[in-house]
Known about the structure:
The complex is a heterodimer.
Chain A: H1 2-19, H2 44-57
Chain B: H1 5-23, E1 36-47, E2 52-63, E3 69-80, E4 83-84, E5 94-97, E6 104-107, E7 114-115, E8 119-133, E9 137-148, E10 151-164, E11 169-182, E12 188-189, E13 203-205, E14 208-224, E15 227-240, E16 248-252, E17 265-270, E18 276-290, E19 293-304, E20 309-320, E21 325-336, E22 346-347, E23 365-378, E24 387-400, E25 420-432
Parallel strand pairs in B: 16-22
Antiparallel strand pairs in B: 1-2, 1-25, 2-3, 3-8, 4-7, 5-6, 8-9, 9-10, 10-11, 11-14, 12-13, 14-15, 15-18, 16-17, 18-19, 19-20, 20-21, 21-23, 23-24, 24-25
Amino acid sequence: xxxxxxxxxxxxxxxxxxxxxxxxxxxxxxxxxxxxxxxxxxxxxxxxxxxxxxxxxxxxxxxxxxxxxxxxxx
Amino acid sequence: xxxxxxxxxxxxxxxxxxxxxxxxxxxxxxxxxxxxxxxxxxxxxxxxxxxxxxxxxxxxxxxxxxxxxxxxxxxxxxxxxxxxxxxxxxxxxxxxxxxxxxxxxxxxxxxxxxxxxxxxxxxxxxxxxxxxxxxxxxxxxxxxxxxxxxxxxxxxxxxxxxxxxxxxxxxxxxxxxxxxxxxxxxxxxxxxxxxxxxxxxxxxxxxxxxxxxxxxxxxxxxxxxxxxxxxxxxxxxxxxxxxxxxxxxxxxxxxxxxxxxxxxxxxxxxxxxxxxxxxxxxxxxxxxxxxxxxxxxxxxxxxxxxxxxxxxxxxxxxxxxxxxxxxxxxxxxxxxxxxxxxxxxxxxxxxxxxxxxxxxxxxxxxxxxxxxxxxxxxxxxxxxxxxxxxxxxxxxxxxxxxxxxxxxxxxxxxxxxxxxxxxxxxxxxxxxx
Lengths: 74, 433
């Protein structure tokens, strides 16, 4: 099951990569994407707190980052 | 005129800021080698009738030059208050004795049993080093230590990323490893053994351990000038002692007797979970810039070998009120199915299963979060540096299903899912030197 999932992800990523060559912007068009609020890791401690609370209170954790939580709360 | 080192640094920043303004590049790229940026935060988490958590945090990041960064994260936790034992309500009053066997909690008829004296403190430190490898590759690696009264954790991880298509596509892959040492107060109880009425745990060992191996594969794609997409696949394999040593399962009367009503708990046993678990998630996130505002929408599907399947939807909208203020409403919806060995309780007439847990986090339930964040830029003051102040208020609830196998007799009068209602306040201040 794991090998199948991994193969699908790799094939999907490969397809995405070739398909994505027509997407994107030129370096001088990155003004908006470079704004701090557009960062995928904007407000890292807010994101970390969310991950920690839901790790302690729900059955599924992780996804955005490495799972696990380094605490005995689950 | 001879400029001092500080003046030269300020001039360099001003020139760089002007160039960046023309190019539209983010100001954080202006940091000099050795400069620090700090993100400090305090969390207050309070459950209605449940635990209270106070958690201060610091995230410090230093520019080490050549696009390399050192990040240090320090977290403290203080947790106190009543926490459900996993036991079922009774038509009579019950007594919960803590694992130390010293403190007892009286539980009124119809109330969900809790350990009122639950208390824990935690300190954690994490360090990450991030550096480019040539023009297209980047390596992040680090480790962390987390210490609690009854739990110690060591973790390490590494993530390698490569850019394609003029840095519009980034592929990343990483590995993580975590080793946990578990030292329950009163020792490790024998799984499925009867909880002594006088408390204590009849320990079979002082400690146990578990490890978690993780894989993370991700793609980020710039779609256009205003749209960014992230997709991750994560895999985590846990093995070792995965029980929650304080959680119990009620064994209830399947027939009424002169002393006991139908459905009343007769005694409690310690839970037992499988010693391995594999979890997988697929995570998709979109960030879209809409005329000064930012829409952040995410979806996650998770599934594991314990039978839990979950769907999570997240929605945030950063609404810029002006150049200095923003409001961000936040919504989150989470729904999971139950683990195959979850039981709200057991009947005294049925054989003991190999695995059973009444931990509500393994039950089928729905979690809902509604929140509002307010942020403002703060000018430099007499004793504080210029930065961004953010306040977030959230309300989180869980509502769950039932267990028809034990919804008999007196239990039909009680709620079989303890439910959760929590209020979250977080204050954050980020600044740099």
